[in-house]
Design a protein that fits this description.
It is built from 11 helices and 8 strands. It is an alpha/beta fold and 218 residues long. The protein has one domain: Aldolase class I (TIM Barrel). Strands 1-2-3-4-5-6-7-8 form an 8-stranded parallel β-barrel, surrounded by 7 helices. Strand 1, helix 1 and strand 2 form a beta-alpha-beta unit. Helix 4 packs across helix 5. The protein is globular, with a radius of gyration of 20 Å. Bound molecules: erythose-4-phosphate.
Length: 218
C-alpha cells in the first residue's frame, strides 16, 4: 500500500523521506492555509522534494474554473495530481482531465455511489474520508470495503486513497480493506513506527549489553 503524507508543511515532509517510505503527498486548501504558504510556490517545493504523486486542490466550484485552476496546477510539475471536489461540476472536470491524460484525485467522498461515479468519470484516485464519516456516526472503514468490492467487481482502475485517517488503527484497517493508498498526517506516520514493547525490548537489550562492560559490538 502506498503511504502519502497529508500535509503542506515542507519540513514535516522532508524530515520523513530518508527511509523511502513516503510515496506521495496530499494537500488541501485548509492545510495550505494552515501552513501560511502560497499555493503554487508550496506545491512546487513539495514536488521538488517528493518524486511521487502530489495532490493539489482547486478552489473554484464551477467546471470551467476548476479546469482553469487544474491546468495551472498541472503545469507546476509532472507529478501534480489535480484534486477536485466530488460535486457534479467536479466530476465533469474530472472527465475532461482524464481525456487529457492528467491525473486527478476526487476528494470529499462519503458514499459508495459517489466513488462509483468518480471511477466512471475516470478519476485516478478516489479519497473516502474515514475520520469525518466516523465523526458523523457512520462506518468509514465499511465504506472503504464497499468501494473495494465495487471497483473489483467492475474492474475500475481508480485507486482507493483512504483519507481523513486519524490514527494507526485507521491505517491498518485501510490496508486490510485493500486500499491502494492511505494519506496520513505526519503525527500518524510517526505513531505507526512506534510500539511500547519495541521500546521496552530495546531498553532491556541495551541494559544487558551495558552490564557486560563492553563498548559497541567489540
Ligand atoms: C485528504 O485528502 C484530506 O486532506 C484529509 O485526509 C482530510 O483529513 P481531516 O478530515 O482530518 O481534515
Amino acid at each position: 500500500m502506498q503511504i502519502f503524507l497529508d500535509t503542506a508543511e515542507i519540513d514535516a515532509i522532508t524530515a520523513r523521506l530518508d527511509a523511502g517510505l513516503v510515496d506521495g503527498v496530499t494537500t488541501n486548501p485548509s492545510l495550505i492555509a494552515k501552513a501560511g504558504a502560497a499555493v503554487f510556490d508550496r506545491i512546487a517545493e513539495i514536488c521538488d522534494a517528493v518524486d511521487g504523486p502530489v495532490s493539489a486542490e482547486v478552489v473554484a466550484t464551477d467546471t470551467d474554473g476548476m479546469i482553469a485552476e487544474g491546468r495551472r496546477l498541472a503545469e507546476i510539475a509532472p507529478n501534480v495530481v489535480i484534486k477536485l471536489p466530488l460535486t457534479g461540476d467536479g466530476l465533469i472536470a474530472c472527465r475532461r482531465f482524464a481525456e487529457e491524460g492528467l491525473q486527478t484525485n476526487v476528494t470529499l467522498c462519503f458514499s459508495a455511489n459517489q466513488a462509483l461515479l468518480a471511477a466512471k468519470a475516470g478519476a485516478s484516485y478516489i479519497s473516502p474520508f474515514v475520520g469525518r464519516i466516523e465523526d458523523a456516526g457512520g462506518d468509514g472503514i465499511g465504506l472503504l470495503e464497499d468501494i473495494r468490492a465495487i471497483y473489483d467487481q467492475y474492474g475500475y482502475e481508480t485507486e482507493i486513497l483512504a483519507a481523513s485517517l486519524r490514527g494507526p488503527a485507521h491505517v491498518e484497517a485501510a490496508a486490510l480493506a485493500g486500499c491502494d493508498a492511505a494519506t496520513i498526517p505526519p503525527k500518524v506516520f510517526d505513531q505507526m513506527v512506534s510500539h511500547a514493547l519495541t521500546d521496552k525490548g530495546l531498553a532491556a537489550f541495551l541494559a544487558d549489553w551495558k552490564a557486560t562492560g563492553r563498548s559497541g559490538l567489540d
